[in-house]
Structure formats: C-alpha cells, structure tokens
Design brief:
Strand content of chain A: 5-15%
Oligomer: homodimer
Distance between the termini of chain A: 72 Å
C-alpha cells in the first residue's frame, strides 16, 4: 500500500484527472457531464474517478442515482505542505537570477556611459 | 510522452524519491551516499535517480567520475503553480469549519448559561 501522499501525487500525475478536478472546481458534476469534453469512453472516465476517489480528491454521493462527483481539495493541502519546504530553493534561485540580471544591466549601463564619453 | 507536469508529479509519487530530494536539499551527494540510508540496492537507487533526472528534479555532473547529484527545485514550481488555483478551496473549507466550531462553542456556552439558571 503506498503512503497517502504518494497516492495523491500519483492520482494527480495524469492530465485527464487534473482536467476532471478543474471541471469539479466549478461545481458538482455527474460521470456523463465529466466525460463530455474528453475523447474517452465512460468506463475510462469511471476508472479515472475511482483513482481520484481512492486518493480522497473527490467524493461521490451515495444517495442520488446519478451519483454526482464533488471536489475534495483538502487532500491537496498535504502536497502543498510537502512542497512548502522546497519553496525557498526556487525563491533563492530566482533571487540569484534577479541579482545577476541587475548586475548585467548595470554593466550594460557602464558600457553605454563609456561610449558616450 | 506524458506532459512535463505529469512527469514531475509521477516522479514525486514515491517515498524513496522524495527522501532522495530531501537529502539533496542539504547539498550534493553521490549515488553511494544517497543509497546509504535506504535498504535498497545501488541499481534500485540508480533507477530512482533516472526518474528524478528525467523529471528535471535533479541534475548529475558529467565531469566528476563520481557524478554527484544536485537538487533542481525550479521544476517544483510548476507543481506549486498548478496547486495555487486550488488553495482557495481548502482555505474556504478551513474558514467554514472555523465558523462552524465557533458557532458550536457559542451554542455550548448558551447551553451552560441555561443550566446555570
């Protein structure tokens, strides 16, 4: 059994499943409604929904016959928590790059001043 | 060929690979150094490193014979960008829960006041 974070990340590692989550961010939807924009069969959509449900990223109503799907975004929070540790690394590299560009443009400015002299 | 974001997410969907990234966040390391804390073979670690390298999450020096691995955290930014759209959903549900708890505790206070009377 993979750990919950691995299950969530594996469920997200598919463009169709991410598109399904994006559609559900606008509100509940049935399997038929979810299948419409995709060129895949209903059983294929159902399989994707099962993966998302197992990862706790969507829930399906047991009551209504059409069993609408609903986004459960709370589980994405674990991904965000994991990611937050690494945020400083790309912030740092962004700052280094900004400092480098700044340095270059200042150097460029000096060149121009020299030419003008 | 999966899209870059799917490749990154699939690479992250493994606890050993996430542990390798955590180790590399402390600095460069060789395959031998990376393999030490895990109860898996060197070839297994090498396979994990290949997955991480393909996802652009690590780079390996071509120069040194021991080819140290280095964290490339910038690619995690795409995951963060994707996630940022969904942040409002768990923020909202957290706020709703906080409001509900607040409501409950106020109700509880009223009950106690009634009993005291």
């Amino acid at each position: 059994m993979p750990d919950p974070l691995s299950t969530t990340l594996a469920a997200l590692a598919d463009p169709t499943r991410r598109a399904i989550l994006a559609r559900l961010s606008e509100g509940e939807a049935t399997v038929n409604e979810l299948a419409k924009p995709f060129e895949i069969s209903l059983p294929a959509v159902s399989r994707h929904l099962k993966v998302l449900e197992r990862a706790g990223l969507i829930s399906r109503s047991r009551e209504a016959q059409w069993r609408p799907c609903k986004l459960q975004a709370q589980n994405l929070r674990a991904v965000d928590d994991w990611l937050s540790f690494y945020r400083r690394f790309w912030d740092e590299s962004f700052e280094r790059m900004a400092a480098y560009i700044n340095e270059l443009s200042q150097g460029d400015g000096d060149e121009r001043t020299k030419k003008r002299r």
